[in-house]
Each structure stands twice: as structure tokens, then as C-alpha cells.
Sequence to fold (211 residues):
Amino acid sequence: MRKKERADAIRARLHELYPQTKCSLDIDQSAFHLVVRAVLSAQCTDLRVNEVTKVLFQKYPEPSDFLAAGQDRIEDIIRPCGFFRTKSKYLYDIAKMIEENYDGEVPKTREELMRFPGVGRKVANLIISEIYGQPAVVVDTHCMRVSGRLGLSSGKDPATIEQELMKILPKDEWATFGHLMVDHGRAVCVARGPKCEQCSLSNLCDYAKKG
Fold:
């Protein structure tokens, strides 16, 4: 079976397994809020980020509110997310850049988003796909691991894997596929000790076939 055909079969099966797949970070159609959540999610669970940002955005919903509050107040609230000093500086600087360079609006291009501290290609792709509706593959650790085990990618870095997946996935499925990879990576294809014997993708998976 050709790689694209196998990718289609894998996608179909994953959609059956996870019919309600979506981004595990809260999405409220505010680009700024998603940028903040994505920055906070580094080395922190999405569940905790969602809980912390409920409090954070009740007090400081806009970039201008972050600037008025100051870095120390942001730091106090985001402390449970870990690395709070570094993250609070990132968030304050991002808010400042949005206000000073983009008239208070989060930019809509990957290149501009990647100028923000703490925002790499993965986060930029998440923003443009979830908020601005631009097709993009979000390659996080789950996507790297699961797509590699399945034999859909062979690259060792996110940018290479992104290009590999873009070639074999329909454009309108790029963003959704990343969410499916997260779902399967958390439920079955875990980092240590993947549950191959329980996996309904095992007959399509290079890793499972190798035992």
C-alpha cells in the first residue's frame, strides 16, 4: 500500500476512534488568548493551562490589560504552569509587541507570529489554523512520535515532519490530523510502552509490524 493510501486508511480509522477530536487547549476565538495558552503549555498539561487562564483572562483579557497589570501580577497567576518567570516575561513582551507593532491585533502570518518570544513554528501553526482558518500541520511531540511509528514520517525535526505530512494528507485535514495524533498518542501510542496489542491501527503501523 502506498504511503498516501495508508495515510487515508489511518485517518479514517482515527476519525472513528476519536470522532470529537479537537484542540485540547480551550479555544474562544481570541487569537491572543490562544497565544497565551500555547506559551503556557510548554512543560505543562493543557488541563492546567485551561484552568489557570480562566482566572488570568477574567482579570486581564486583552494585551493592553497585561501591560497595565505588569509582569509581576501575571507571574503570580501563572505560577502553577511552571517556568513562570520566563513565561511571564514572554507574555508581557508579546503583549507589548502586539500593542506597539500590530495595533493591538495578533498578526495572521506564521512568520510574524514566530517573532514573538516563546512562539515557534508549532504554536504559530496552531494559531493560524485554529483562529485564522489557514491550513497548517501542528507537529508536537505526540505527532512526531505517532506519525513516525506509523511510518508516515521519517524526519527527526518538526519542520521536516510537517513537510512530509503535508504531502500525504488532504489540505483540509492538516490541522485535524494533528489533533488525532495527540488523541492517539495520549490514549494508546504512549511514549513508553505503546499499547500495540490494543491498537486498531496495528495492521497499518510499521512499529507494530516490527514487534
Remarks:
- The CA atoms of residues 52 and 78 lie 6 Å apart.
- The chain has a mean pLDDT of 96.
